[in-house]
Design a protein that fits this description.
This protein has one domain: Rossmann fold. The protein is of the alpha/beta class and 296 residues long. The protein starts with 6 loop residues before the first strand and ends with a helix. Helix 3 crosses helix 8 and helix 6 runs antiparallel to helix 7. The protein is globular. It is built from 11 helices and 8 strands.
């Protein structure tokens, strides 16, 4: 089988049937890709084959997203702490003792919980519009901030339009240098999966709980300061949700972090997958080489 062949799996972890994509040699160093809202591991469809020539790439779907399913009897409470606990169980189920971590959007607070809890596992860190600093939150968060301040029915209903197809399409295309580069099946798949019965309430619960992530930013930043992992921060500069000051802020705690701003929006992989893959391979290869030198 070609090392770039992507395969599709489900594993039971934390009482959840976690769907994931995998590719690359079984004995190669692992790259763990964590997606964000409103997407799934499908967002990595163009990146995985480019990394899998040299690395074992694994991309799960978070609970409430993609093709991961949560049995009703599990009584799952959709909070970011719970998503991280499920991903920790997923990592354990696959016996991943170390991995380079790529985070995007919701994947950042989930992945950084894993990193802060087991920093020795993280061989390298890549943030693609994955925020960990207050200054990274753009004005597009204002309706959700109002919901945090007053989680009334009216404020909850006010953000329901974020779950509709047109809002998802906008997230994919806003800021892109050429909207014709964005595959329409990506946002249509997201909208279809989010439109399943009961999923809207799950997403609104997660919008409310996102405020808990801000309280953990100091812990995440401590991880960067203490462990100084080889870091690439590569962001779409036109993202209205996670803005460039949040990208540059990584260098405050890890001065060696490389920061690149791309001429695109939130879903940078839709337009810049090749550039991101190239930059990642440079980082990952260097991190692996440095690790081997330390072992000698």
């Amino acid at each position: 089988m070609s090392t770039t062949q992507v395969t599709f799996h489900t594993v039971r972890a934390d009482g959840v049937d976690v769907f994931y994509r995998a590719a690359g040699p079984l004995d190669a160093p692992v790259v763990l890709l964590l997606h964000g809202f409103p997407s799934s591991s499908h967002m990595y469809r163009n990146l995985i084959p480019q990394l899998a020539t040299r690395y074992r790439v694994i991309a799960p779907d978070l609970p409430g997203f993609g093709f991961t399913t949560v049995p009703p009897e599990r009584g799952y409470v959709y909070r970011f702490d719970a998503l991280a606990a499920t991903m920790e169980a997923f990592v354990q189920a696959l016996s991943l003792s170390s991995y380079a971590l790529y985070v995007f959007d919701y994947g950042a607070p989930v992945g950084l919980r894993l990193a802060a809890g087991a920093p020795q596992r993280v061989t390298a860190f890549v943030s693609q519009n994955g925020n960990a600093y207050l200054e990274g939150l753009g004005e597009a968060w204002e309706p959700i901030r109002r919901y945090w301040a007053d989680p009334s029915v009216a404020n909850r209903d006010a953000i329901r339009p974020f779950l509709e197809l047109e809002a998802t399409r906008w997230q994919y295309t806003h800021g892109a240098p050429d909207a014709s580069l964005v595959a329409p099946e990506a946002y249509h798949l997201d909208a279809a999966l989010m439109g399943r019965p009961g999923n809207a309430e799950i997403q609104l619960d997660l919008f409310l709980d996102y405020a808990a992530n801000l309280a953990l930013y100091p812990r995440f930043q401590q991880f960067f300061r203490d462990w100084q992992p080889p870091t690439l921060v590569i962001w779409g500069r036109h993202d209205p949700f996670f803005i460039p000051p949040g990208a540059h802020a990584f260098q405050r705690d890890n001065p060696q972090a490389e920061v690149r701003l791309l001429d695109t929006g939130h879903f940078a992989l839709e337009t810049h997958a090749q550039e991101i893959a190239t930059a990642m391979l440079v980082l990952l290869d260097k991190a692996l080489s440095d690790e081997k030198l330390l072992e000698k």
